Q: What sequence folds into this?
């Protein structure tokens, strides 16, 4: 059975793709700030993960997000 | 022992024949060495790259033959030159075989690199596009490091262009040499940007 929360691609397929596993209390803004220094850039992360995220305000711990 | 006029004449005639004989052999002996030298010089660079041990052996044999020239032993040169010429031809074949082997290996490596490295370029391009739009930089990354990463990425893309051009022309050895420099530069840029390979 395919879990919709599976990562979009295995890091084995693309060793250069960057991933982050969502922790408790994370938001896309917080993750954007950590990786890009600017929380307003969170849509970049959302757009790269539309296959597993339907709403940028709803992320769950354990989700493996691609960080472009 | 009594030396007669006749025996002196015979000895003189023999010496003259020997001198003429030697003089007759000097030119072909010198040419034989020059021919081997010329044949070897056409493959010396590649031989030093692909068959250094075999080249050393041929060079050593050539040195021995040249020593005979200095000693005036032209006969030894004329009898040894064909075998040495054969060694040079064998060396030429060894170089061709090893070159083909290296080219085939590089062709295989290129198949992997040409699929793998564009992903690396893409990942870095994507991160740089975002970071250059960011109003602030993330912790651990300052403007100078970002500027340097951008410059290195430009070098990387340029090298990648050269690699693909070399591969298109069939020079997979050169293509792989460039691809390795792209991989090294890419790893450097990724590390500077806080990105991890296999990350």
A:
């Amino acid at each position: 059975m395919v879990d919709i929360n599976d990562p979009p691609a295995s890091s084995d397929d693309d060793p250069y793709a960057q991933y982050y596993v969502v922790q408790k209390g994370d938001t896309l803004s917080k993750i954007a700030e950590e990786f890009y220094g600017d929380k307003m850039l969170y849509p970049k992360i959302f757009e790269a993960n539309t296959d597993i995220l339907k709403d940028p305000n709803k992320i769950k711990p354990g989700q493996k997000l691609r960080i472009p | 022992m009594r030396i007669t006029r006749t025996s002196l004449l015979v000895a003189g005639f023999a010496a003259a024949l020997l001198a003429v004989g030697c003089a007759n052999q000097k030119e072909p002996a010198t040419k034989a060495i020059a021919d081997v030298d010329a044949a070897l010089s056409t493959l010396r660079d590649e031989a030093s790259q692909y068959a250094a041990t075999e080249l050393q052996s041929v060079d050593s044999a050539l040195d021995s033959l040249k020593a005979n020239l200095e000693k005036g032993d032209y006969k030894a040169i004329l009898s040894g030159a064909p075998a040495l010429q054969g060694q040079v031809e064998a060396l030429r074949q060894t170089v061709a075989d090893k070159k083909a082997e290296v080219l085939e290996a590089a062709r295989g490596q290129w198949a992997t690199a040409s699929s793998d490295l564009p992903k690396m370029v893409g990942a870095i391009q994507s991160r740089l596009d975002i970071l250059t739009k960011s109003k602030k930089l993330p912790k651990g990354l300052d403007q100078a490091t970002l500027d340097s990463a951008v410059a290195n990425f430009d070098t990387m893309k340029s090298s990648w262009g050269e690699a693909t051009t070399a591969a298109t022309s069939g020079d997979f050895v050169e293509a792989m040499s460039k691809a390795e420099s792209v991989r090294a530069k890419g790893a450097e840029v990724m590390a500077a940007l806080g990105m991890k390979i296999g990350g």
